[in-house]
Design a protein that fits this description.
4 helices; about 50% helix; about 80 residues; mainly alpha
Length: about 80
Amino acid sequence: MNKVILNIPENINLKTFDFSVYVASKMYEDGLVSAGQASEMVGISKRAFIEILGKYGVSLFSQSVEDLDKDIANA
């Protein structure tokens, strides 16, 4: 996997894990990665990732058939 270094303002109080999940869930929501890939990015199981999606306002269910096909192909 590639690593990205990002400078975050000090007034934003996010733990590394929370920020990782935030980014991974957004990438999942946008269809850039599957749930399995997103969980690997964060370093947790796919099940755990799916269980915390709601905390970040992301639906587990794909928006289209094409998105679902991508998820299945990347699983």
